[in-house]
Amino acid sequence: MEEKEKPRLITGGFGTTLILEPGADPPVQHDYVTGKPPAAEVNSSIGGTETGKQRRKNIIFFDFDGTLSPELLNGARFTEYLKDKGIFDGKAYNEWEVLEKGYKEGTVDQNKMSTGFADIFSKGLSKKREDDVKAWAGIYVGEKVKYYDGVKKTISRLRDTNDYDIVIISASPQVLLDAIGRDLGATVAYGAYVPIENGSFTGKKPDRYFTTDGKREVVKTILKEYTNGTSAAVGDSKGDIGMMELVERAVVWNPHDEVNEYAQKRGWPVLSGNDYSKVYGKITNYSCKKK
């Protein structure tokens, strides 16, 4: 009797571990500036990457929704866009509308919303070609995604002048985060990884979510490679607290009420408005005043 193929463990960018079911294609995560895996060498035997030395001295983590973009549900808006293009399944989109309604009414918390959305996104793209969805993601980011004023300049200055690797982490799907990472010139971007086999979406539940704990664990893993430089993070919501607690320089941007209160206790700088140059100034001239 032929032995059933077992799931594979692969090492993703910066040493993060993913579980891949038999036949599944690994996510390709790379430095969007250089086009190479972030601080890594490709391991062709498993299709993933092995962690090497960091590319730059320092590292900064950004949440996306509400932090780099004023839109709070970019993944959902992308899903609606795909539905209108005839790519995303209508019944699955109806499921998302019910979940979104619960989130807005307060009956569904942020973590359940994030995992539920990722499940529905995968279901709605079942059997669709990855290359087609990637192409639409690139078009969508160019036409629809909005950033706060000065986001691209801030990221460019942190990367090129202050020697920061730029990492974006979001609960939105990886296919959208790849397009956003390229557009912003990030080092790497992490999103919910929706399973793909033979170049098509499987409809199965994602292999990776980014809830509060998910973000924290990925940041913790990445920081092991950055022992001689400065670490920083910028976020706006409760789901970003675990990420910000791990770094030396945490900045809160246009926070939700509960995050504002927590930031005050921790002494984290709290910034508001639309001008992202404030973030650059606070990261490069940091002070933390605990109460």
Q: Any idea what the CATH superfamily of the domain at 57-73 and 143-284 is called?
A: HAD superfamily/HAD-like
Structural class: alpha/beta
Q: Biggest sheet, strands in spatial order?
A: 7-6-5-10-11-12
How many DSSP helices?
A: 10
Report, as a whole number of angstroms, the end-to-end distance.
66 Å
Q: Could you say which overall geometry the principal axes of the C-alpha atoms support? A: globular
Task: Give the proportion of residues in helices.
Answer: 25-40%
* Percent of residues in β-strands: 15-25%
Q: Give the biggest beta sheet.
A: 6 strands, parallel
Molecular structure report:
- By secondary structure, the chain is α/β, with parallel strands linked by helices.
- It has helices at residues 74-84, 90-105, 110-124, 130-143, 151-160, 174-184, 212-223, 241-245, 257-266, 277-284; strands spanning 8-11, 17-20, 40-43, 48-51, 58-63, 164-173, 188-192, 196-197, 200-201, 231-235, 249-253, 270-271.
- The strands form 4 sheets. The chain has a 6-stranded parallel beta sheet with strand order 7-6-5-10-11-12, sandwiched between helices. A two-stranded antiparallel ribbon has the order 1-2. A two-stranded antiparallel sheet has the order 3-4.
- A hairpin with a 2-residue loop joins strand 8 and strand 9.
- Helix 2 packs antiparallel against helix 3.
